[in-house]
Structures are given as structure tokens and as C-alpha cells.
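Q: Here's a chain of 310 amino acids. Please give me its 3D structure as C-alpha cells.
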Amino acid sequence: MQPVPPIPPASSGSDFLQHIRYEKRLSHHTLVAYENDLLQFTEFLQEHHSGTLPAQADHLLIRAWIVHLVEAKLDKSTVNRKIATLRSFYGYLLRRQQIAVDPMQKIVALKMSKKLPTFVEEKPMATLLDDIDFPDDFIGLRDKLVLELLYGTGIRLSELTGLKHADINPYDRTITVLGKRNKHRLIPLMPPLFELITHYQQQKTIFFDGKADPATLIVSDKGIAAYPVLIQRIVSKYLSLVTTLSTKSPHVLRHTFATHLLNRGADLNAIKDLLGHSSLAATQIYTHTSLDQLKKAHDQAHPKGGKRSS
């Protein structure tokens, strides 16, 4: 277990950090990020406005810090995270009547450019799952199942490693996935994938002589619950055989799952439910990719596709 960050002096928001540590119970990573953000803001104030504490800063000083961060070439997402830290900090002070006005009311986040999801085209995926020879043993079977599950269901890496045998429903051929915010969702299994899971379950028992982790579905070469790095290695190894994408991660297969469904006419709301998104906004990013595919198909198939008038 990682140690929690030390509580800094009161001038850098120790009460706030104690609040998020013990009442909000945020992760260690988030605690460290909040502490570092407040410390950096405090140092900026001391350097440019000596004697001013974070609790005394107004929106002009906060805006000056944001400009300073942007000029330092920080990524926009990093700057926005720091803005979110200050938003939480001043909200905390306002609720406890330690400040009369929230200076963050006049601060807006930086506008982010949308990044389209990276995905594998349909033909390379078909080549990988239909034509590539996997080792004819339990490990090869396990690796193929990992790829088939990620691509065939769109589940996240953490959801894959958390799958239990009890999550497989043989009667209606579905899996129950525990997603973010401890929400469960049902995902249907296509007959070939269900048959692959059944075969894998049988071979797992035989290969490990019944001594592997009895509850966890995907296990390592030693029979213990599969860990994230193992899954990442499997995905990267096999995707390298069919694509030159710079990113070859389990999440790429999640993007591929959603993109291929949309390209073939699936309803956006249905994809949202399958992915476990809390809102449609998170799913709509795939419409941009789908539109690009439609334009490409139009240019290739239409008599005047790709032609420009002279």
C-alpha cells in the first residue's frame, strides 16, 4: 500500500487536503495531484505576489497563474486538471465561510481539441482473429480469448481482469461486467465467443489440474488471476502482427469494437449501454470516426467519388 502524501503547512491548504483525504477518500494518485497543484500555485504566488496565500487570491491572480502554465507549454489537459483542483479548493473554503466570494466563478477551463479514438480497421482484425495461428496449447487459447473478449464485448482492461466464471451466464449467453462506479451491465455473447469461453473453461481445468484460481476467468501462465501488464503484452504482441498503429493497447480494441458497430449501423444508445458510458456524450466521439469511414466509402464507391471539377 502506497503511503499517503504528507499534510503541508496550513498556508498551502492543509485543511482542504485533510478533507479530501479522510472525507472524500480519493485515491492516492489524486491526493498527490491535488497536493502538487496547490503547492505549485502557492509557489507562484510567493514568487510573483509575495505574502499572498492561496485563500487570499482573486480571479486575476488565478488567471495569471493559468497564463503562466500555458506559456510554460503545459498540456491543456494538465492545466485543466489544475483548474479543477482550485475549483474544489475554493468551493471547500466557500462552504466553510472562509471566503466570501468564489474566485473560480470567473475562471473557465481551456478549450480542448477532441482526439479521435485510435482503432484497428475491420480487415486487419478479421485477419488477426481468423487467419493468425495461435499456439496450440492453453496459453494460445487464453491469448485468443483475451483478444476475442476485448474486441467482441468492448470491455475495459480492468473489467476483463475482474471477470469471474460466475459472471458467464450459459442460459442467455451473456456476461455480467462490473464497470466504473460499481455499476453492473449485461453484454451479450455471440455464439462463437460463447463457445470459445466454454472450451477455455474446460481446458483451464485440465491444464492446471484444477489448481488454478477457481473463481477468476482469465489467468496467467501460473494459474493466478491475470494482471494488467500481462493483458497489455498479449494485445500488443498480436496487434503488432496486423497493424502499424503506434498504440496497441486493450483500449484500442474497445475503440475498435465501438467503431465497427457504429460503421455497421448499430444504434448509438445501444453502443453507449454496451460500453457502460454514463452519458451519450462520451459515446458520440465515435460518430466522427464513423463519418470519416462513410466519406471514405462514398469516395471509393460513387462514380464521382474523389473526383474534383477542374
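Q: Can you summarize the key feature?
A: Confidence is low (pLDDT under 50) at residues 1-12.
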